[in-house]
Each structure stands twice: as structure tokens, then as C-alpha cells.
Design brief:
The complex is a heterodimer of chains A (642) and B (299). With 642 residues, chain A is an alpha/beta fold. Helix content of chain A is 30%, strand content 27%. Chain A starts with a helix and ends in a 12-residue tail after the last helix. Chain B is α/β, with parallel strands linked by helices and 299 residues long. Chain B has 8 helices and 10 strands. Chain B has a 6-stranded mixed sheet with strand order 3-2-1-4-6-5, sandwiched between helices. Chain B has a 4-stranded antiparallel sheet with strand order 8-7-9-10, with no helix packed on it. Chain B folds into 2 domains: 195 residues, 3-Layer(aba) Sandwich (Rossmann fold); 79 residues, no CATH class. The chains are: A alpha/beta (642), B alpha/beta (299). Chains A and B meet through helix 1, helix 2, helix 4, helix 6 and strand 2 of A and helix 1, helix 2, helix 6 and helix 7 of B.
Chain lengths: 642, 299
């Protein structure tokens, strides 16, 4: 608290509260490494805004003596370096949020580390920030990491940058040094679209130009850092854009009230406004804007409200209520930027969950068009994205979603990808535009359909998917099942891993990415064959749950029969019919399932066969056929549509 | 179109978080500790789901050692809002008579609160629990996510946190896992007091100064709230005191104060310079202690 407020605080607490309850708020991000003095700067902001309490200060003094790097002087960095692990290592390992306020504003600072491996954290911090403070060590000038930080800031849509040239005390407060750095930076920044730049020379350690203009830089006429942050105008596009509200929750306390609760993320809305429900396209008008504090005349971007509509239209969680005159687009295929955030690399073709707004759908990412070298901004070819890599890919969804380009609205254009099995958030994405392809390739509607074809065959179409370790006995059992079905007059086809790899998939190897693609192709072939009315027997190690789930999702309910041929690793390795385990153990074969590549056992297979020797292959095959009979797959449908 | 104030923004963000959590969880619950932060969180929940009643129960992990005024306030608030109130007392702690005098604050807190919370979450099968923690309270909190995953063993892994971008929160869990959700993450102590003032939110009277029977223990003033507290004759003194934070009465330090109205409290808080958690005996061990406690399952 500054001193002027202290007087008001003591003399007129009511007036003080009136003023302070009506501050604005600014979220900003600081970019730079420990070496640039970032933690010191934030510690200084907290200290100078008098938000460091006496007991914290006592702890700071004792910590500074123990582990400080300032020779016993206050080490402000110790105020902000939180987790025990990072205090030992002397680096900040994650994104942290700090708070301080002045008389004008409350500030939320996203404090993120500058080390290369932590792109993830910086992107996270930048996603909610309106301003970036980019730190530069005056002795070093614009570095590779400065470029990297600036690119990420620009990618995430931050337009206002404070270029904080720090450690000015170590270059004798030289104007020439600062001018050179500013010129270098502006030249680079304009290439990536950053133009609103304010260069502030300062020393976080000594306190120059933080809250008060420093006598050491008489040549500098711009604002102090706090002065800049207090007054910078944040032109938030979402406030002026068209109305958007993703529906979070349908509010139904009784039969007489049906409201749609959500946060306005674009524009504003008033009772009487025409709104469209997207993606359904139904339209209505806003009847009331309901809040616990009474109905509102207007709700603006950032407010959490409940809307009621004049008509009974179908609205549920995940829909977007939007201005009828300027609705968002609706599409199921996009080009997007992806920032990969997980140790497990992206697997093109694998289905992930995509959350955008309040809607969650299934998404498949195509092989990236390129990845961006964040240091040089060069585009290079790649098959995948690893942790902290950024690339551009096409992405396709299992159903259409409402969207705006990210550049127009962060909330309706930004999404995350979630792994369907670990539930980890694995990537952040920015939607750019919808691909027209989806609109132009219409599924050919055919007269003779699957049911008709299957009826003629006297059976229902199905895909019987045998999964298990190499040597478990999948192909042996699948073969016997096919013979039995053939004898009873059913139309079948056996897709076998080894055979498919000789033809359709001979361009694929055994990396995780190739394995995913292998199964994707097989699953698509199996689907076409099921569409032809066949009973398809597919025998593939198919080690990942995600891909087996993908195959299942391609088919209609009941058509996919997962058979877990469960021998255990010991038995399979003992059998080792093709000598592959021995090779893998010797290290001559890499990515071998069960040895150095994981096998994810099915959680709920339709059939779980004990293939450790308890059942003969013949008995196992009988069990499968019996299951198919009980499931009605071996009988003709009774009432085909036509 | 006027700009939203910082309190309006914080309120909207909290409401967004509350609604998002309820929509994504199967069995949500709100941990209610009866303190001022809990009061603000409950007030925000009532706003978030208005005109519906918040669609989840309140859970109080009780230690039997809270102030009497807290129990009275708790029961009345739940009834006023029409919400279900679940009270869990660790049966093992009850049977063993765990108390802060004989067993020390660390064990008392661990058995009643940490173990009690785990038991209650398992017992009712909650997959999501709201808590009133703020990031400004303590350094390790500054890095905790708004939606924070706990393993089936209730452990927090600070290295495996999910990135949180924009307004997107990932609340998905595996069977046995649960999520702690902190709607007040971005509020500071001052924000909380300003909001209580602005919204006229009722808080437990213990926050206001009044003459209360107290004893001095290790330089801390402790209120004698019932006759379970061992005291020497003539030791108890009536002092004008209030509390900056509320917990188990034998573990909660009182401060001498004349501030008996909300504005006086805020004035006093702003003019003094010791941070809020200082009154909590639990934090005095070491600076990394809270991080360790949280990894072990403390809220």
C-alpha cells in the first residue's frame, strides 16, 4: 500500500473501501530466465507494493543469509520460488500465479520459467494474459530465448509488450546500450506481428524505474514499470466482438424456470436480442438475464449469468448461444496450431478428446504439415510432435462444433486435447480456419445398404477383433473360427497382421506412430468389409487401447467383438514360434510388444480367452463361435429395412 | 459499457469454475470449514446456481475441537440455504480420543483432518471436492492448479499437474481418483475481505473483537472455549480478542484487538503487517512443510 492510501485508510476507511472495491484488473505474464532476474523483479513488485508481510520478510531475511545469492542482502527471488524441489535447483519449474495491487489495479502475474523445456508453462501462462513483460539482461541483449518468448507471446494473441531491459546498474545506466537493444528487438518483433512495444530500462535489484523514476536514467522519459502496468489499455477483442456464450449448465430448479448458465466470452447481450443456438441453428430471443442480484439490462464479456429464452428451444451443455446476426462457424475439420504438452509424443491418427468452450468431442490429428523451430521460426517437416514442440496440423472431429478463429476470440478458438485413457491434458490448440474438404466429400448414399447385404448373407455384419501378445495364439484361433463359420455357410474374411504388413501397410514400421497408423488402416478396411455384410476376423497385436477403441467407434453398437487372447507374457515368450522374443531380448528387435513396448490389456473385452494352455485352440474357437451365436450375429436379421 | 471491477471479475471466474466442476463431475461435494473463505465460497455457490439450490452437499470434516460458535453457524447456514450437510468425524480418532493437548498439533491435524478427509471422500465416493484455498496463502499453493488431481491414495503430485489454459478445465478422473477444485485460487486475503464487505456476507462472530476468556501458551493467546482445556486456576483472563483465521480452538491464536465491526477489521488488517497464516500453529514447522503435507493428502 502506498503512503497516501495509508492516510485515507486510517482516516476514512469507508471511502478507502469504496475506492478499492472498484479497481480494474490486469493479468500479465513475465518472460525471462532466472539469469535475467525475473524472480527478483516479481519479488520487487510484491515488496514495493507493500504486500510482503513482516513474518514473510523475517523469513526472507533469514533465507537470504542461508541460500541467497546477493551476499546477505535481500534476495527477492526467494519470495517467489515456491516448491522445495526448485528452491534446491535454483530454477522455477512451473507456472505460478502471484498477486499484488496498487491504487489503480489488481494484478495477476503468471510467472513462468524461461528454460527451453518449459514452453508448455509459458503457453499456459500466456493463455490468460493481456500483457507480456519480456525481460532482457542489459549485458546480453536480445537472445535466442527472447525470440522464443516473443514468438509464443505473439502466437497466443498478446499484443502489448513491455520490454524490460534489466540489470541496468551493471552497464552504468547506459542509454546507448538500451537504445541498441530496443532497435534490435523492434526489428525482430515486427516480423512476428508485435508492434505495441514499450521499452523500459530498469534494475529490479536496485529498484530503478520500478515504482519511481530513477535519478540514474535522466535520459529516460517513459513510464516506470508499475506506471505502465497501471495505465496500459487492454483492447480486448472479445468485448467488442459478436455475442458468444458457451452453455455450461442448464438451470432447472422447477418446471416453470429453464435457464442457460454460462460465462459471456464475446460481445454483450440484452433482453430482446435475437440469439442463435449453435450448432443446431435454432433461433430465439433473450427473455431475461438472471443473476442472484436481480435481472440485468445487459451482460458483457467476462460476466457469468443465466439467460432465459422467449421460446422453448432445445439447448444443452456444450451449445453456444450467439448473436443471431453474427453466429460462429460450424465445422468438423480444421487447420490449427498445436502446442504439445505431454511426455508421450503426438500420435497422428490416434483419437484424443478435444475440449473447446464447454463441449468435448473426439478428435483425430493428421500428421503435422510442419513444426516450428521456436528459436529460428523455421518450418521443418515432421511426423509427430514431441513435448514442447509446436506445429501446424489438420484436425478432424467426430461431429461439428461451433468455433471462431483464435485470432478473433480466444475462448471459442482455443482448445485442449486430452488423452482418452490417462486423462492427461496433452496439447493446447488454436483453431485458424475450417477445411472445406469436409463439405465437398459427401458420403455416397447407396441403394443397397449394409443390412440388405448382410440379410442376403444370412448373418449380421461384425468385426471380431483378436488382440494379444505375439505368440498368444490369436491367428491360430482366428483361423479355426473362420473354418467353423465357413462350414456353417457364413461369409467371412480374415485380416491378419503379418499379411496386411506385406501389402497395404508395407510402408509402415514399428514405432508407436506407425503402429497407430497400421491399426487405423486395418480398422477402416474392416469397416468397409463389415459394410459389405461380412463377418470380419481381425488378428492384430494392437497393443494400445486407444486404437482398439477407435476401431470400435467406427462400427455400430454390437458390431465390434473384442477378443482378448490372454496367454501372459511368460507363455507367449516360451512359445516364441517365430523366434522374435529371443531377438528382442538380444536387442536385435526394438519396439517389441511386451519387451520394450507396452501392451495395454483390454479392460472390458467381449470375450476373454485364457490362452495360457488351459484351453486348446479348438476349445477357444468354440467359445468365440458360441458367443457370436448368442449375440445373434450368425442369424439373418428378421426385418431388413428393405 | 463500463469495465468490470476486479471483484466482479473474480466473482465471475469463481462462478465459472463452480459451474464447470459441477457439470463435469459425477458426485461433487463442497468442503465447508466454516471460516470466512468458506463463507465466500458458499456465497458464490449460491450465486452460481441461482435460482436453483447448489446441486451438491456440504461436507464438514470435523475434529470435535472447533469453536462452539462455528458449529452453531455451520448448522444454521446449511439450513438457510437448504443444502445437505454431511459431518464426518474420524471414528478412529474419536475412539482414541485424539486431542491437541496430549497428542500435539501435528498428529491431531493428521489424524482428524488429513485421514478424516480421505475417509469421508472414500465413504461417500465423491469424485470432486471444492475447497476454499487461495494461491496467495502460501508459496506451494501458488503453483497448484484450480483443478488439482488426487490419486486413489489421495496424493498430490506437483510434477504431474495438468496444464490449465484459457477458461478450460480438465476434470476427468480414473476410477478412485478425485479432483480438488479451488474456486478462490486467484483471490487474495484483501479481496476476500472487500467482497465480504461489499456483499454483506455473514461470517462467524469470532472474527469480531469481544471480551473472551483466554490463556497464554508459548506466546500465543488461546481462547478457552470449553472445559476440555486444562487450565491453571487464575490463569484465565478476559481479553478483548478476535481471530484472523478459524480452526480447532486450542490451535488457533487470538489477537488482541478492539475491531468489532467489519470495516474496523479491514482497517486493522491493512494497517498491520503480519500475514494471515501466522495464527495457524500448523505452519511453523518448516517452509516446505505445507508442500509435504499436501503431497500426503492434506487439503
Amino acid at each position: 500500500m502506498a503512503h497516501a492510501t495509508n492516510e485515507l485508510l486510517a482516516s476514512d476507511i469507508d471511502e478507502y473501501l469504496r475506492q478499492h472495491e472498484h479497481k480494474s484488473m490486469l493479468r500479465f505474464i513475465t518472460c525471462g530466465s532466472v539469469d535475467d532476474g525475473k524472480s527478483t523483479l516479481i519479488g520487487r513488485l510484491l515488496y514495493d507494493s507493500k504486500l510482503v508481510f513482516e513474518d514473510h520478510l523475517a523469513a526472507l531475511e533469514s533465507d537470504s543469509r542461508k541460500v541467497g545469492t546477493q551476499g546477505g542482502e535481500l534476495d527477492f527471488a526467494l519470495l517467489v520460488d515456491g516448491l522445495a524441489a526448485e528452491r534446491e535447483q535454483g530454477i522455477t519449474i512451473d507456472v505460478a500465479y502471484r498477486f499484488f495491487s496498487t491504487e489503480q489495479r489488481k494484478f495477476i502475474v503468471a510467472d513462468t520459467p524461461g528454460h527451453e523445456q518449459y514452453t508448455r508453462n509459458m503457453v499456459t501462462g500466456a493463455s490468460t494474459a493481456s500483457v507480456a513483460v519480456i525481460l532482457i539482461d542489459a549485458r546480453k541483449g536480445v537472445l535466442t530465448q527472447t525470440r522464443r518468448h516473443s514468438y509464443l507471446v505473439s502466437l497466443l494473441g498478446i499484443r502489448k509488450v513491455a520490454l524490460a531491459v534489466n540489470k541496468l546498474d551493471l552497464v552504468d545506466y547506459s542509454q546507448d546500450v538500451v537504445d541498441q537493444i530496443e532497435a534490435d528487438y523492434r526489428a525482430f518483433a515486427s516480423e512476428i506481428g508485435l508492434t505495441d512495444i514499450t521499452c523500459i530500462p530498469l534494475s529490479a535489484l536496485k529498484g530503478d524505474n520500478i515504482t519511481e523514476r530513477s535519478p540514474n536514467t535522466p535520459w529516460y522519459t517513459g513510464p516506470t514499470l508499475i506506471g505502465y502496468l497501471e495505465t496500459v489499455e487492454v483492447d480486448d477483442d472479445s468485448r467488442t466482438g459478436p455475442f458468444r456464450m458457451p452453455v455450461q449448465w442448464v438451470n432447472r430448479p422447477n418446471l416453470d424456470f429453464r435457464g442457460f448458465s454460462g460465462t459471456v466470452v464475446g460481445g454483450s447481450v440484452r433482453p430482446g436480442d435475437a440469439v442463435r443456438v449453435v450448432p443446431s441453428g435454432r433461433e430465439s430471443t433473450v427473455a431475461r438475464i438472471v443473476t442472484a442480484d436481480g435481472d440485468l439490462d445487459e451482460a458483457v464479456s467476462g460476466q457469468a449469468v443465466t439467460l432465459t429464452l422467449a421460446d422453448e428451444v432445445d439447448v444443452s451443455r456444450g451449445d453456444v448461444l450467439a448473436a443471431a446476426s453474427a453466429p460462429p462457424g460450424v465445422a468438423d475439420q480444421f487447420e490449427c496450431h498445436l502446442v504439445w504438452m505431454n511426455e508421450d509424443a503426438m500420435l497422428p491418427g490416434r483419437p484424443y478428446l478435444l475440449k473447446i468452450g464447454t463441449r468435448t468431442v473426439t478428435a483425430t490429428v493428421a500428421q503435422p504439415k510442419y513444426k516450428v523451430n521456436v528459436n529460428t521460426l523455421e518450418h521443418t517437416a515432421t511426423k509427430t510432435l514431441e513435448l514442447n514442440e509446436i506445429g501446424v496440423s489438420n484436425i478432424s472431429l467426430d461431429r461439428p462444433i461451433p468455433f471462431d478463429p483464435y485470432a478473433e476470440n480466444r475462448d471459442t478458438g482455443g482448445f485442449v486435447l486430452i488423452d482418452r485413457f490417462t486423462n492427461a491434458t496433452v496439447a493446447a490448440g488454436l483453431l485458424h480456419f475450417a477445411l472445406r474438404r469436409a463439405d465437398n466429400v459427401h458420403w455416397q448414399a447407396v441403394e443397397v445398404d449394409k443390412v440388405a447385404r448382410a440379410a442376403q448373407n444370412g448373418q449380421r455384419p461384425a468385426v471380431v477383433w483378436f488382440t494379444g501378445l505375439s505368440g498368444a495364439g490369436k491367428s491360430t484361433i482366428a483361423n479355426i473360427v473362420e473354418q467353423k463359420l465357413h462350414r456353417s455357410g457364413h461369409r467371412t474374411y480374415l485380416l491378419d497382421g503379418d499379411n496386411v504388413r506385406h501389402g497395404l501397410n508395407r510402408d509402415l514400421g514399428f514405432t508407436e506412430a506407425d503402429r497407430v497408423e497400421n491399426i487405423r488402416r486395418v480398422a477402416e478396411v474392416a469397416r468397409l468389409m463389415a459394410d459389405a455384410g461380412l463377418i470380419v476376423l481381425a488378428s492384430f497385436i494392437s497393443p494400445f487401447r486407444s486404437e482398439r477403441q477407435m476401431a470400435r467407434d467406427l462400427l455400430e453398437p454390437g458390431e465390434f467383438v473384442e477378443v482378448f487372447v490372454d496367454s501372459g507374457l511368460d507363455v507367449a515368450e516360451q512359445r516364441d514360434r517365430k523366434g522374435l522374443y529371443a531377438k528382442a531380448r538380444r536387442g536385435e528387435l526394438v519396439n517389441f510388444t511386451g519387451i520394450d513396448s507396452p501392451y495395454e490389456a483390454p479392460l472390458h473385452p467381449e470375450i476373454h480367452l485364457d490362452a495360457s494352455g488351459a484351453l486348446s485352440p479348438e476349445e477357444a474357437a468354440d467359445e468365440v463361435v458360441e458367443h457370436l451365436r448368442r449375440a445373434g450375429i450368425l442369424d439373418a436379421p428378421e426385418h431388413p429395412d428393405r | 459499457m463500463s469495465e468490470l471491477t476486479h471483484l466482479q471479475r473474480l466473482e465471475a471466474e469463481s462462478i465459472h469454475i463452480l459451474r464447470e466442476a459441477v457439470s463435469e463431475a459425477e458426485r461433487p461435494v463442497m468442503l465447508y470449514s466454516v471460516g470466512k473463505d468458506s463463507s465466500v465460497m458458499l456465497h458464490l455457490a449460491a450465486k452460481a446456481f441461482h435460482p436453483s439450490v447448489p446441486p451438491f452437499p456440504l461436507l464438514h470434516v470435523d475434529t470435535t475441537w472447533k469453536f462452539q460458535a462455528m458449529y452453531e453457524f455451520r448448522d444454521r447456514k446449511a439450513a438457510e440455504l437448504g443444502m445437505d450437510l454431511l459431518v464426518h468425524q474420524n471414528p478412529e480418532a474419536l475412539a482414541r480420543g485424539i486431542n491437541p493437548f496430549d497428542h500435539g498439533s501435528a498428529m491431531h491435524t493428521d489424524v482428524w483432518k488429513t485421514e478424516g478427509l480421505k475417509q469421508a471422500i472414500d465413504k461417500y465416493g465423491f469424485d470432486l471436492a471444492f475447497g476454499g484455498a487461495r494461491r496467495d496463502e502460501e508459496k506451494s499453493r501458488a503453483k497448484e492448479r484450480v483443478f488439482s488431481i488426487r490419486s486413489a491414495q489421495h496424493r498430490w503430485d506437483p510434477k504431474a499437474q495438468r496444464p490449465e489454459l484459457w477458461r478450460l478445465y480438465n476434470a476427468r478422473t480414473q476410477p478412485g481418483e478425485s479432483v480438488r477444485v479451488f474456486p478462490l485460487s486467484n483471490w487474495t486475503e484483501l479481496d476476500i475481505w472487500q467482497y465480504i464487505h461489499l456483499e454483506q456476507i455473514e461470517i462467524v462472530p469470532l472474527y469480531f473483537s469481544a471480551p473472551r476468556p483466554t490463556v497464554e501458551r508459548d506466546g500465543t493467546l488461546i481462547m478457552v472455549d470449553d472445559d476440555r482445556m486444562p487450565v491453571q486456576p487464575d490463569e484465565v483472563e478476559h481479553r478483548s480478542v478476535r481471530f484472523r483465521t478459524l480452526g480447532c480452538y486450542p490451535l488457533t491464536g487470538a489477537i488482541e484487538s478492539e475491531a468489532s465491526t467489519l470495516t474496523e477489521i479491514i482497517q486493522e488488517m491493512l494497517l498491520t503487517t503480519s500475514s494471515e497464516r501466522q495464527g495457524r500453529v500448523i505452519d511453523h514447522d518448516s517452509s516446505a512443510s505445507m508442500e509435504k503435507k499436501k503431497q500426503e493428502g492434506y487439503f
